[in-house]
Structure formats: C-alpha cells, structure tokens
Design a protein that fits this description.
mainly alpha; MetI-like fold; 2 domains; 15 helices; Carbohydrate ABC transporter membrane protein 2, CUT1 family; MetI-like; MetI-like_sf; transmembrane
C-alpha cells in the first residue's frame, strides 16, 4: 500500500511538470555535465599538442595540430632507463589489484559482525572507525611507517598494500549498507542451517553489490596513484619496486622540454580509473542514491 501511494504520487508529480520545465532542467544538467568534462578534454588536448603549442601565450584550449609525438617521446625516455616501463606497469597493477581485493574482502568481513551481530563494544569500535575518517593521510603516515617497519615489510610490495587494506573508509561504507538488510532474512537463513560465513558470502555480499563496487573504484583509484610521494617514496626504496606514478614524476626532473611526455603520462594515469568508473557508474549512482535510507 505504501509503495503504491508513493508510485502514484511520483507519477502524478511527473505528469504535472510542464515540458518547458523539463527543457530547462535538461539544459542545466547538460551545462553542468559539459563544465565537469572541461578538465578531461583539456588534458586530452594537452597530451596531443606539439611542443611549440604547449608554450604558446596566451595558451590555447584545443590543439591545433594534433600529434602522438608526446607518447612516442614517453616511450623513448623509458627505453633508455635500466628499469623498463613494463616493470613499473606490473608493479602498479599488482599493488592496485591486490590492495583493492584485500581491502574489499577485509572491510566486508569486518563490517558484517558490526552490522548484524550483537557484539560487546561494537558501537565503540564503530565510533573509533568513524573518528579515524577525520585524519588526513599525512597524519597516519608515521604510524603506518612504524607498523610496516616492525613487521619487516619495508621495501616490498606489501609496504604499499597493507596500509591500503586497513583503511577505514571501506568498513564504514560496507557497514552502513549491511545495516539495511532485513534481520528476518538472516534469521531465516540460520533456521535453514546456513553458517555465518555462508550467510555472509551467499546472501549479504550479493545484496550489497553496489557498495563494494563503489569501494573498488575508491580503493583502486587511491592505489593507482600511489608512488610519487608519501608511502610510495618512504616505504619503497628499490627502483625495481617503484610504481608508474613515481616513474612518471621523474620525467619532470628532465626540464621544461619534457612537458609533452609529462602530459601524455598524466593522461595515461587518468584513463584507467576513468574507464573503471564508466564500467561501474550505475552501481556508484545506486550507492549514492540509497546511502542513508532505511527499510
């Protein structure tokens, strides 16, 4: 009855809206979308500019004579280094994928008992998690370094992966979504003889799919850009273990004439997270639209 009334109210509201108002809203949203796409278009245009156009004054927004020389020069730069670009690429992909998968699994497994089991001190633990969201990465850099050093993981892939796995954003997001799952559904599964792990993996995780898909985007984006500073610079010393972000940042040390290859490198680093977002944008929108709602 409740959903029928709500559907009729929404339908009536939609029918009462005039065509002119729909047109105004369309142009407003289209303008906002175009404005948000400006940085992305400018980065593509810059990566395709020849060197003489990069230093024009006043600068031009769109490229006049597009060229792929910047990407060719980028490959030429790394062909002369003793660590090949493929090694940096492998390091980045391995760290990003391993850290993302580990973070999603650990955050989900930790969020389930906090959301659906009556744990003593569970509210206090969750409050600590919420408070940890207020700290900037620069604040936790030294504690993370001391922890990784105590575990003997400095100068390894795990020096970048372990701190990313233990971030509190995933736990907060997964708990908020798991709380929306009806307790009656879990009780029915227990009556049928399902174990806690079976309930978690076969019932809870599929129902919170938009949440962990969104978490994958956030986690992968953070790990994909790790390397030029912070943990990437202080936790890993061997050149063979560096990521692409660190390697690309070294291009700037060559002087202003490497501005073209640097623009090409920035575009490459941005394309992968953008493509992942495009593939999973429906789940992200669903996550944002349903967060905070209760059944």
């Amino acid at each position: 009855m409740k959903w029928t009334i709500q559907w009729r109210w929404r339908r009536q509201k939609k029918l009462n809206r005039s065509f002119s108002m729909d047109l105004v809203l369309f142009f407003i949203l289209a303008g906002a979308g175009l404005f948000m796409a400006v940085p992305f278009v400018f980065m593509i245009s810059t990566a395709l500019k020849p060197l003489d156009e990069l230093f024009l004054f006043p600068p031009t927004f769109f490229v006049r004579s597009p060229t792929l020389d910047n990407f060719y020069d980028l490959g030429l730069i790394f062909s002369n280094t003793w660590v090949p670009l493929s090694r940096y690429m492998f390091n980045t992909i391995f760290v990003a994928l391993t850290g993302t998968v580990g973070h999603v699994i650990l955050a989900s497994m930790a969020a389930y008992p906090l959301a659906k089991l009556r744990l003593p001190g569970g509210n206090v633990l969750f409050m600590i998690v919420v408070l940890s969201l207020m700290f900037a990465p620069q604040v936790t850099a030294i504690p993370n370094y001391l922890t990784v050093s105590w575990l003997g993981l400095l100068d390894s892939y795990w020096a970048l992966i372990f701190p990313a796995i233990a971030t509190s954003l995933g736990l907060f997001l997964m708990k908020q979504f798991m709380e929306q799952i009806p307790d009656a559904l879990i009780e029915a599964a227990k009556i049928d003889g399902a174990s806690e792990f079976r309930i978690f993996w076969s019932i809870v995780m599929p129902m919170v799919k938009p949440a962990w898909l969104t978490l994958i985007i956030f986690s992968f984006k953070g790990l994909w850009g790790t390397g030029s500073g912070g943990q990437g610079a202080s936790f890993v010393y061997s050149e063979q273990l560096k990521t692409m972000d660190y390697a690309f940042s070294q291009i700037l040390a060559g002087g202003f004439y490497r501005s073209g290859p640097m623009a090409a490198a920035a575009l490459i680093m941005m394309l992968v997270p953008v493509l992942i977002f495009i593939l999973t944008q429906s789940s992200v929108i669903q996550t944002m639209s349903t967060s905070g709602l209760k059944d």
